Amino acid sequence: MRQGEASRTALGAAGHRAAHQVLEGGRIFADHLALAILGDDAAEAIATARERPERRPLRLFVAMRSRFAEDAARRAIDLGSRQIVALGAGLDTFAYRLKPLEGLRVFEVDLPSTQLDKRRRLAWAQVGEPPWVAYINHDFQRGSLTAALLADGFDNARRAFVFWLGVTPYLTEDAVFATLGELARLPGGAEVVFDYANPPDSIADAAARHYFREMSARVASAGEPFRCFLDTGALHWRARRLGFVEIEDLDRAALANRYMPGAKRSGAGGHVARMATP
C-alpha cells in the first residue's frame, strides 16, 4: 500500500462482495451494505466482474470466506462473546449490520488512511457509525496489536472473536505469526478466522497458475505485493505451539462443498482457517 492512500486490495475485495450481490444475488454471502459502501465505485466493480469472467472464482472465494467468518462470529456472539475484532477491516460492513446488543464492542483495526476512506464512504452512503464500533490504528508490520486494542477499551480478560480476512498474503511471515502469537496469549482467550495462501509452486492446474501470476502482477502494481505463503501442515504445527487447541481449515474445495454443493470448481483459491485457544 502506498503511503497515505487507502488500500487498493481492500477496495478490490469490497468490489468482489458487491458484485456477488448482483451477479449471484448474494446467494453465498448476503450483504445489503456491500453496494452502498462502495458508492460511485460500485458500478465499475460490477462492470469489471461482467467483463472479466475469469475473476469469478476469486469473487466466489471472497464470498465464501466472508460467509465462513460471519457464521463463526455470530455463533460466538450467540455463545456470549461481546468483543469482536476485525483485523484489516477495510470496507467490511459486518459491524454496521449487527443489531444492538448489551455490552457489544467491535474493534476495527486498520491503517489510518484506509479507515478515513471507509468513514467517508459510510457518511456518503448515510450509514451511521454505531456506538459499539471503535476504530483502532495499527500497522501489522510494527508495534503491538494488544497495546493498540487496550488503549481503546479492549478488555483482554474477556474472550474475543477475531476475523482477519484478505490480509496475511500481504504481510511478512514474521508479522503473521507475531499477530497470531498475540491473539493466542490473550488471557481471556480468543477465536480467530483468517485466510491464507499456500506456496504458488503447489498450484497444479496450469490455468490456475496463470491466473495467480496475473493477480500477483496486479496487486504488485497497486503497491501491495504478495509476501507470505504458508504450508498448511507447518501452519497448524506452529499454531498449536502458540497455544491454539482447536483448528478448522478449509481449502477452496471444502468451502465449495459447504456453500456451493454441486457447483463446478475452477481457479486457484486459498484456505480459510478457524483457530481457538482454550
In short:
The protein is α/β, with parallel strands linked by helices and 278 residues long. The chain is 45% helix and 14% strand. It is built from 11 helices and 7 strands.
Would you give an account of this structure?
With 278 residues, this protein is an alpha/beta fold. It has one domain: Vaccinia Virus protein VP39 (Rossmann fold). It contains eleven helices and seven strands. It has a seven-stranded mixed β-sheet, with helices on both faces. Strand 2, helix 6 and strand 3 form a beta-alpha-beta unit. Helix 1 packs across helix 3, helix 1 crosses helix 4 and helix 4 crosses helix 11.
**SS element count, helices:** 11
The helix/strand class is alpha/beta
Binned strand content: 5-15%
Mean pLDDT over all positions: 92
Largest beta sheet, briefly? 7 strands, mixed
Could you say what the CATH architecture is? 3-Layer(aba) Sandwich
What are the secondary-structure elements, in order, as H or E?
HHHHEHEHEHEHEHHEHE
Kindly report how far apart the N and C termini lie: 35 Å
In the residues, how many domains can be counted? 1
Uncertain residue ranges:
none
Q: Reading side by side through the largest sheet, how are the strands ordered? A: 3-2-1-4-5-7-6
- CATH C-level category: Alpha Beta
The name of the CATH superfamily reads Vaccinia Virus protein VP39
What keyword list fits this structure?
alpha/beta; 45% helix; 7 strands; 278 residues; Rossmann fold; 7-stranded mixed sheet
